[in-house]
Amino acid sequence: MLRALQDLLARLFSPSKSEEPPPPAEDEDEPPPDPDAIAVLPIEDAIDLHGFQPRDIPSVVEEYLHEAHARGFPEVRLIHGRGKGVQRRVVQSILARHPLVESFRDAPATRGGWGATIARLRINR
């Protein structure tokens, strides 16, 4: 039984040179996606910043705060991760001077602890 499983795994992960290549995908005529294209993300009451380049974090946070405020969110959570605290400092420095932010604090342990920041937004009047 063990030998049969090992043979199967060997065939699956070590294709022989005589095998034909897989057929081309039907969408082969489409160009690959542009890595610099603007991604449209749904605006929710939390944003995970892990998927963004560090150089883009300030502009992402600025735009996110404007959109979240426009949608009437009273509070948002910005997930920046724990790490060495660099992104946390960047995010919190933006929040400290942003005119739409009333206050901010580290998230409670159940919502990310110091790997996330909760920002209270000013109310539209």
UniProtKB/TrEMBL annotation:
SMART domains per UniProt: SMR
Residues covered by region (Disordered): 12-38
Gene3D superfamilies, A to Z: 3.30.1370.110
Coiled coil: none
Domain called Smr: residue spans: 47-122
TM segment ranges: none
Protein name from the UniProt record: Smr domain-containing protein
